[in-house]
Amino acid sequence: MKPLPFASLYLDTGKSGIAGDLQLLLARDNRLTLTKSPKDAAAVLSVLYENQKKEVLTINSGGRVNEYQLVYRIAVRTVINGVPVEPDMSVIVRREMNYSDSAILGKEQEEALLWSDARRDAADQIVRRLAYLKRPAASEQPAAKPAHAITQP
Question: Measuring CA to CA, which of 8, 108, 110, 128 is 20 to 30 A from 69?
């Protein structure tokens, strides 16, 4: 894995479902320290929104659902040394699931596993993208920061 452009990170994930997956992936990097406070971190990763949606993909000739598409969306903002990295990162993960009325309990378990897999995949994509962020220049001043961006001294 390519080194991250910062040595310490604060995760501001709130109650999002991806929090555990992000923590697990980031904890594997022994060069990175996960902090308990944004003031102690060189970078802050904040989840802006997280959404999961189940859409009908195909219908059989009897008018019953044959397949669903599960769509997981997440957007995160990274702030390095008080400077937001633009643009915000967004990830969309799609999974297809065959459906059958005769196996409802099994399909519920399969759906839960697919959602979990989609979150792990999104977390992996976010961590890989973090490694390619450019460290803001010291002369850069946060010009128009969003209201919920975290600044550090």
Answer: 128
